[in-house]
Design brief:
The protein is of the alpha+beta class and about 200 residues long. It is built from six helices and eight strands. Helix 4 (about 105-115) runs parallel beside helix 5. GO terms for molecular function: peptide-methionine (S)-S-oxide reductase activity.
Length: about 200
């Protein structure tokens, strides 16, 4: 009885397994999507809240990691401090492995636009700098075409009527660097931690 009361008061302990999976790659022909939309904590958090991998079969996202990409290719293993200095040109981003038989790349791109403000240059809320830019890093020519098409559709439907223009960068993905361990799943481990106010559903 006491343990039950304590769990009600303090809440259930965070279980990383609820937001990641170790399903063998052979079981699913996973694809990779890479997005940047400001603070990578919030980007990862909102994707996983709406596409949780558990309970099985989940909603299409298999695993995620936050990290750095899109920067100076001569700079290896960038740190959070160096990326936030703006000197490396890397973006804070999330790398998503997904099952295309459950959720399509086009759906993920549309959700990416739905869950942040893609009309602000190098800024999300109070977070500013190239590391906070809105970007889609494509992993194939097909993804490049889909990202361009969905961007045009979202622009016409949601932003042209408001006289606003999407400034999202769409570019082939470069080298990926995982962020430091404490950044991974940060908002699930620290629910009261900082979250950019633009990471919400806009429509």
């Amino acid at each position: 009885m006491l343990s039950r009361l304590l769990s009600l008061i303090v809440g259930a302990p965070f279980e990383a397994a609820a937001y990641s999976t170790s399903a063998p790659a052979a079981a699913v022909r996973a694809e990779v999507a890479t997005f940047a939309s400001g603070c990578f904590w919030g980007t990862q958090h909102i994707f996983l809240k709406h596409f949780p991998p558990t309970p099985e079969p989940g909603k299409g996202i298999l695993r995620t990691s936050v990290g750095y990409t899109g920067g100076n290719p001569l700079l290896k293993n960038p740190s959070y401090r160096s990326v936030c200095s703006g000197t490396t040109d890397h973006a804070e981003a999330v790398r998503i492995e997904f099952d295309p038989t459950v959720v399509s790349y086009a759906q993920l791109v549309e959700f990416f636009y739905r869950s942040h403000d893609p009309t602000t240059q190098n800024r999300q809320g109070a977070d500013t700098g190239t590391q906070s830019r809105s970007a889609i890093f494509t992993n194939s020519e097909e993804q490049q075409q889909i990202a361009q098409r969905v961007t045009e559709e979202v622009q016409a439907k949601h932003f042209t009527p408001k006289n606003r223009k999407i400034v999202t960068e769409i570019t082939p993905a470069g080298e990926w660097w995982d962020a430091e361990t404490y950044h991974q799943l940060y908002l699930f481990k620290n629910p009261s931690g900082y979250q950019c106010p633009t990471h919400r559903l806009w429509w």
